[in-house]
Amino acid sequence: MSEIRSFVELVQSIYGTKDFIPLHEPRFDEKEKRYLAQTIDSTFVSSVGEFVDKFEAAISNYCGAGKAAAVVNGTAALQVALRIAGVNNKSEVITQALTFVATANAISYNGASPVFVDVDYDTMGLSPLALRNFLNEFGELRETGAYNKSTGKRISAIVPMHTFGFMCRIDEIVEIANEWNIPVVEDSAESLGSSYKGKHSGTFGLMGAFSFNGNKIITSGGGGAIVSSDPQFANKAKYLTNTAKVPHAWDYYHDEIGYNFRMPNLNAALGLAQFEKLNEFIESKKTVYEIYCKELDSGSFRMKEIPVDTEWNYWLFPVEFQDQESKNKFMEYTNSNNVMTRPIWQLMYKLPMYENSQRDAQINTKLLAERIVNIPSSAKKV
Ligand SMILES: *Cc1c(COP(=O)(O)O)cnc(C)c1O
């Protein structure tokens, strides 16, 4: 217990307060207020405005993607990226059960079914080995694409998720996906600022989806973006999320059923001010992470190691426990002492809507679900 008590004291000293300390809170200063005031003064608060263009350009330049389309949230970004990748109501999409529910929901919104394949223990993201095994057992490559022999459905996409900003073995996943002629859409909601072997999250597959929700590394209030190194896909995303309106000076003509998923200019103003501080946030979070590592190097829990080849954005810090009992004790004590800690998500196949989804043995997924807890990870207050 004294170990947990000193953990609570450590967190309080890092953030300089004994008040409630959340897992992740945003940091704002005058810049956000300035950009927001500018937006209001301009009257362009809604779906048209210069901050949307600036924010999209900032995100795509930073990631080295060809282009970005800013949208209302990360879930919508994933939903539309999957539709563009060809996912429909006759499809299956391979993803991981160790994720936030939005990943699976975005698949469902397209009428498709998720299939859950195991993650790697070190990265906590989709495992290339498990993916290969699944496809070797159930996949059948036909002229029109890859099919699941056990269901007869087309496997229309693979969605790896970069958990807490750790990068999965995305190069191997893309290689396997190419062999099977299946497009990859990265769920990069948590990994803006992370890269793998020098290349940014979201730029490995056909498209990547970011989130700028309030708990993410930068926030636009609510928001998301679809990025792609091929501008064709980002343009298509822009058009579909803008009601599929065919550009014309005055005519309202729409040639398919699109969405009203554009990011408002007001949100883009907030997002841009935040984006301009992304590197500072990463630096500050790294400092906090290193304090934790130094102080928590022994005992019943330890910081999960950053996987090789990942340049981490330090979004949310995972701590690894040896057993469930010590984990539960830790969560009880910290949460009743004003320090928020949280277990990893309930696995997708434990939720009623996905309990019948096809899945493999989920060996690492289950171990991680038992052992991983997130601890306060905000940047320091300035
Ligand atoms: C946050 C998140 C999303 C969805 O983003 P929203 O902006 O909240 O819709 C999707 N996938 C993962 C893994 C996330 O963490």
TrEMBL record:
The active site is at K216. It is an enzyme of class 2 (transferase). One of its GO terms (molecular function) is GDP-4-dehydro-6-deoxy-D-mannose-4-aminotransferase activity. GO terms for biological process: polysaccharide biosynthetic process. Keywords: Aminotransferase, Pyridoxal phosphate, Transferase. InterPro entries: DegT/StrS_aminotransferase, LegC-like, PyrdxlP-dep_Trfase, PyrdxlP-dep_Trfase_major, PyrdxlP-dep_Trfase_small. The modification N6-(pyridoxal phosphate)lysine is found at K216. Its EC number is 2.6.1.102. It catalyses: GDP-alpha-D-perosamine + 2-oxoglutarate = GDP-4-dehydro-alpha-D-rhamnose + L-glutamate. The keyword Transferase applies. Its cofactor is pyridoxal 5'-phosphate. It comes from the Bacteria. Signal peptide: none annotated. Pathway: Bacterial outer membrane biogenesis; LPS O-antigen biosynthesis. Belongs to the DegT/DnrJ/EryC1 family. NCBIfam families: NHT_00031 (TIGR04181). PANTHER family: BLR5990 PROTEIN (PTHR30244:SF30), TRANSAMINASE (PTHR30244). This is GDP-perosamine synthase. The lineage of its organism: Bacteria, Pseudomonadati, Bacteroidota, Cytophagia, Cytophagales.
